[in-house]
Amino acid sequence: MADEDRSSKTEDPTDKRKQDFRKKGDIAKSADLGSAFLLAFGATSLVVFGSFTYSALSGVYVRTLSNLDSPNLGHIVKSGGIGFIKAVLPVFAITFFAALLAGIMQTSGKITWNKLAPDFSRFNVVSRLKQMIFSMESIVRLIKELIKVVLMVTISYFYIMSRKDTLGQLSAGSHIESMMLILSMITGLLIRLLPIILLIGLGDYIWEKYQMFQKMKMTKQEIKEEHKEQEGDPFLKGKLKQRQRALVMNSMMKAAEEADVLIVNPTEYAVALKYDTKKAPAPFLLAKGRGVVAQKLRKIARSKRIPIIENKPLARLMYYNAKVGSLIPPAAYRAVALILSRILKSRRKPR
Length: 351
Prior knowledge:
This protein is mainly α. It has 2 domains: 2-110 and 121-229, no CATH class; 236-348, 3-Layer(aba) Sandwich (name from scop). The chain has 13 helices and 4 strands. Helix 5 (125-134) packs across helix 6 (136-162) and helix 6 (136-162) packs antiparallel against helix 8 (175-216). The chain is elongated. The protein starts with a helix and ends with a helix. 15% of the residues are buried.
């Protein structure tokens, strides 16, 4: 079932899909890469601070053993504990920084709390067993772990065998010398294991990235659904635009009732103008339309006794060059001024 689901996911994930995965905390992470960072920084810290750590631990060891018969044993233990912390603090601080750095590098510093929330599906024993036994991820993980164990055991064996003469000296030296020798061998072993662990970590991280990319892939239907969610349902969008146009049209028709003149092309265009010096320095367009809208504007003009002037070039000029609510174009000033002047004179004539 899982294979069928993956085979249908042929499309690369969209940016939104990637963001959704990140929000849920589904990010490619490699535990092996984190271990490699810890090992690298741990080995480095032992090389850099090894002498300090060795001498500090030796001092704590000597002081504690030489004062065991002291009546103030509590103080001796406390002093030894503080000395131990100071001795190992540089190494622990660096390894802690390494763990933090490995996490930040793999997650880009993004903290997701979703993964901390309880997920009761993880307690489903049957589904978990199926995942562990039958999934390709489990097989790959098993092979990877086997390779890692074989390589680490092999390298450790050959390193220890190369130092078998040194191991024979452990019983001959003092406790301090033995401890320093063991720490030196541990450092040497970590340095030899480091390249292998780094390679395994990088390979594992690349594999996890690939797996996550495959998991994020989408079907064609999912792409369509996401597009619909982002852009909105085309039918609803059409309805919304239609409603918005209707509101604009109603507002424009209402404004046309206040026009001083309606200039028309006999059958196609109509523009309603208003000249009010308190509102604007020149005549401005209240409404415009063509076809059915032009007929509605004529109807309003007749019902409100607004003068209708036929002027084909002027009607076309203002229809195409002026926006509703804006001033008429300068090219129309003279012609409109003459029309408004004639209308004003006709209104002043005694009836």
